[in-house]
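Re-running the complex after MR caught last week's input typo. The corrected sequence lines follow. Everything else is unchanged.
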Amino acid sequence: MCRGPAVIDLPRHNANFCAEHLQQLCRRQVTKAIDDFEMLVPGDRALVAVSGGKDSLAVWDMLLELGYDADGLYVGLGIGDYSDDSGRYAEAFADERGRRLLTVDLRGEHGYDVPTASVATRRVPCSACGLSKRHLFDRAAVDGGYTVLVTGHNLDDEAAVLLGNTLRWDVDSLARQLPSLPARMGMPRKVKPLIRLTERETAAWCIVRGIDYQVEECPMAAGNRHLGYKETLNGLEAASPGAKAAFYLGFLDRMAPVLAERAADQVIGLSSCVRCGAATTSDADEPVCAFCRLVEVASAHEPVPVGMVVGRRARQARR
Amino acid sequence: MCRGPAVIDLPRHNANFCAEHLQQLCRRQVTKAIDDFEMLVPGDRALVAVSGGKDSLAVWDMLLELGYDADGLYVGLGIGDYSDDSGRYAEAFADERGRRLLTVDLRGEHGYDVPTASVATRRVPCSACGLSKRHLFDRAAVDGGYTVLVTGHNLDDEAAVLLGNTLRWDVDSLARQLPSLPARMGMPRKVKPLIRLTERETAAWCIVRGIDYQVEECPMAAGNRHLGYKETLNGLEAASPGAKAAFYLGFLDRMAPVLAERAADQVIGLSSCVRCGAATTSDADEPVCAFCRLVEVASAHEPVPVGMVVGRRARQARR
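Corrected-run output:
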């Protein structure tokens, strides 16, 4: 791109990038995503869901740099040292930028952690983790008066979710897989400004910006289907640079509109959880949301150490 | 399945199959495909597009065994020894069953072959090959008074084409990717009875039925995208048996109906080629179909030996 020393080669863009040009590329792609999908407007109060990893710290950093009002939210999932370290990266970033970091501790406030929830529900840890985070993100955003919830999902994440939804032709999930979802009953607007950047690019952003982040993958996630889909897409990308972006962005461009017509006919009725007030699709007389049901089961279970769940998953993977 | 000696293990069905049970499985899946998509009706005169490979010979054999009136059509593509051998397998099968095998020789009747067409058009050989075959299959079926054209596309083929169309979100191609297409202007009804069988299953069918077939892959196809997609799907299938069938059959079940509504609004106008009368999407005053344009360019080019195209593709693949 220029005579500056290259920090990253990007076959998709058929060029090497120096630190300055990489930042330009990232800013341009994030601005384009925000504009194309009307993610943020002046006056928004944004809450960024922060894991302590590269993506969530990068998106928080970029939004602040672009002049948005953005605080962070960290949920302590109780995944041993991994969670402790992740929380410290989130705090360090917030302190440096002088921004507020809200925190929720699953064990301290709701009486369970992800490994325990996994064993108590007999489901993969990622299932309980995702459910918990979605609920707590929504609640914190609404309680804190934020107008929009921001997550750091990047192109690799979204393409992998899309591949999973497509391989199953889960048409309802496909119709909902949009980078900007409007607010509805008890849920804030939700946006994903990093959809046009890969995880190599967000990692490079953090490196050139001097942001320390959790570089480990979550030990609970090893061997999960989502990571398998990422590998599959990386294979396709290696054979044909640009294939991953074409897959995800092509979906938004050409398939999502077809599904939107269909989705408009099928608005799902929501009711309020009798325990916490959150929106739920339950149609029981006294509806209880999935999060409150998870809390009930998981908090009644004796604490399970992280290593037990990791070991079990490693044994399953070997079979 | 029984005490008979196993000839094939099928993880998707979680069982090993003896020769007799394998044939039962194949007959059941083909009958289901024919019924589900109204592929064939009593009184149909079927023309099977026969390459000399396992799939086309298997589908011809199954249709005859199920009592359908089915002749074959072999197109000599001029791909050196590969084509000569393939033609002999097709003839031997026809002779054994006492059925008629129509033949078309590209070089003899149209003045070109696939390697030459590839060089003359500067496109991959599979492009000229597919275009030639589609045109000649349609013409032979209509000229011969056949009511339906049968091809041996199996689950692996269709899933790979689907993956390619999906990765590009080629919505028009997705809408047309159906196992049974009605007749329209100058084109016969087209059906794919093997969509519920994998290539391992059709190969096993040929083996237990004593059918000799061309076991080599086409030398022109090596390294093409379609084979890459097959490999990708085989990786997904290995990680999760049944994933390939769920992908393709789930598409037919849940996505194709959504696209059909859309396709109904977009009927493409066809006109007749001024040279051969075939249907064409060309909207010129004197429309010439893609086949006649190919014949014009390829027959004017001096013959190109197979090895030259294979060698060029091998060099490209190494890059």
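None of the earlier attempt is carried over here. The longest strand of chain B covers residues 69-76. The mean pLDDT of chain B is 93.
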